[in-house]
Amino acid sequence: MTTLRPSDGEYPRLLEIWRSAVEATHDFLTPADVEYYATRVPLYFPEVDLTVAEVDGIAAGFSGIAEGKLEMLFVHDDFRGRGVGTALLRAALDRFPDLTLDVNEQNPRAVGFYLHHGFEVVGRQETDSDGRPFPLLELKRA
């Protein structure tokens, strides 16, 4: 069973979850890219409202929202396919029915996840927020 709670500042565990998720799903990133982002991600944690998903008392995933935009949603690879991401997304939508988000175009599983949950592509950016060559799709609820 998945339970949701606010983050209690467990940033090292959240970074572990992030790394596991990225290494399992972001095939387009090189190891050097992953290391670059691993230094950046913790800087964003204090800037978003973090929700942690636990499975049997273990932090399995998290989401971060700022100003009605889903800035991050990551599920540890050991817990993918068990409803953790869906629980986090539904909780975000309960709070922000007009939720928007960006997703890496090169991550088809994530794109499919959001489309399955009623989002539609409304725009595209050639680079990510760091100006790196990883296109982002802008999504909103259909």
From TrEMBL:
<dbReference type="InterPro" id="IPR000182">
    <property type="entry name" value="GNAT_dom"/>
</dbReference>
<keyword id="KW-0808">Transferase</keyword>
<protein>
    <submittedName>
        <fullName>Acetyltransferase</fullName>
    </submittedName>
</protein>
<dbReference type="InterPro" id="IPR016181">
    <property type="entry name" value="Acyl_CoA_acyltransferase"/>
</dbReference>
<keyword id="KW-0012">Acyltransferase</keyword>
<dbReference type="Pfam" id="PF13673">
    <property type="entry name" value="Acetyltransf_10"/>
</dbReference>
<feature type="domain" description="N-acetyltransferase">
    <location>
        <begin position="2"/>
        <end position="142"/>
    </location>
</feature>
